[in-house]
């Protein structure tokens, strides 16, 4: 296992401003050590069906957008103050993430190309009524809204807030690895989709970075078929 020698910025459990990197040193560290280390998770993962592999996928698609190490240090200190250890905290984080995606769409940026209003998605899911054991597919998944909402629907027995009986270990495993599948052409949307599904509880999303429209229909085999398709028409 390759280890990354990160700077020690804590002393007695408290943030140590004297040892914390900032300015050009922090930018250099992030760009030349931290990001390559995280990208290497993909090669070091035991299987593509692991969260380590997906982390490597994410950091293989993104770049550090901070030019100022001082601004980056301020952002890191704000993030470090947050806590996402409980299920409630994780749920809140997923809602924040969804809100940011929605805001991208409302602002007319790239997000508008792959953000579908959640009430519309939920209505479509309620009409199709997917069941645990069925394979759900979105061939142009964008931010993976259809897949995330389908997971919530199956995990909690609907959208009415009335949780169904507890799922068995086998059912939970099926939801994690054998239920949700998607493909996305654009790099930004691909990364957002993976992160969105991880934050909703799918540890190793079955999302492939590819152009569905470039596939040859004659190459599709029985194993490539799905039970439920929930999707928007892909953008060209």
Description:
This protein has 236 residues and is α/β, with parallel strands linked by helices. It has 2 domains: 10-80, no CATH class; 87-229, Rossmann fold (3-Layer(aba) Sandwich), CATH 3.40.50.150. It has 9 helices and 6 strands, in the order E-E-H-H-H-H-H-H-E-H-H-E-H-E-E. The strands form 2 sheets. The chain has a 4-stranded parallel sheet. The chain has a two-stranded antiparallel sheet with strand order 1-2. Helix 7 packs parallel to helix 9 (187-200). The protein is globular and about 60 Å long. It starts with 9 loop residues before the first strand and ends in a 7-residue tail after the last strand.
Fraction of residues in β-strands? 5-15%
How would you name the CATH homologous superfamily of the largest domain?
Vaccinia Virus protein VP39
Work out the number of β strands.
Answer: 6
Structural class call reads alpha/beta
Provide the CATH top-level class of the largest domain: Alpha Beta
Distance between the termini: 42 Å
Helix content range: 40-55%
- What's the CATH topology label of the largest domain? Rossmann fold
Architecture per CATH nomenclature, i.e. the level-2 architecture of the largest domain: 3-Layer(aba) Sandwich
Uncertain segments: 1-5
Number of helices: 9
How would you state the average pLDDT, rounded? 84
Q: What global shape is seen?
A: globular
Task: Let me know the largest β-sheet.
Answer: 4 strands, parallel
Number of domains: 2
Helix and strand sequence: EEHHHHHHEHHEHEE
Q: Give the strand order of the largest sheet, numbering strands 1, 2, ... along the chain.
A: 5-4-3-6
């Amino acid at each position: 296992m390759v280890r990354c020698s990160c700077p020690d910025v804590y002393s007695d459990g408290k943030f140590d401003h004297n040892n914390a990197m900032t300015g050009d040193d922090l930018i250099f560290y992030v760009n030349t050590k931290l990001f390559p280390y995280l990208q290497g998770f993909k090669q070091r993962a035991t299987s593509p069906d692991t969260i380590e592999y997906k982390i490597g996928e994410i950091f293989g698609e993104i770049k550090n957008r901070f030019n100022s190490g001082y601004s980056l240090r301020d952002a890191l200190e704000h993030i470090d103050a947050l806590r996402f250890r409980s299920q409630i905290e994780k749920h809140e984080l997923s809602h924040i993430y969804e809100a940011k995606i929605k805001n991208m769409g409302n602002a007319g940026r790239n997000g508008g190309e792959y953000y579908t209003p959640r009430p519309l998605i939920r209505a479509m899911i309620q009409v199709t009524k997917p069941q645990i054991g069925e394979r759900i597919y979105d061939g142009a998944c964008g931010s993976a809204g259809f897949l995330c909402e389908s997971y919530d629907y199956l995990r909690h027995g609907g959208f009415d807030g009335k949780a169904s009986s507890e799922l068995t270990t086998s059912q939970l495993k099926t939801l994690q690895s054998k239920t949700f599948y998607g493909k996305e052409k654009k790099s930004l949307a691909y990364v957002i989709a993976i992160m969105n599904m991880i934050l909703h509880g799918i540890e190793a999303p079955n999302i492939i970075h590819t152009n569905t429209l470039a596939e040859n229909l004659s190459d599709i085999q029985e194993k490539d078929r799905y039970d439920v398709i929930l999707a928007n028409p892909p953008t060209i």
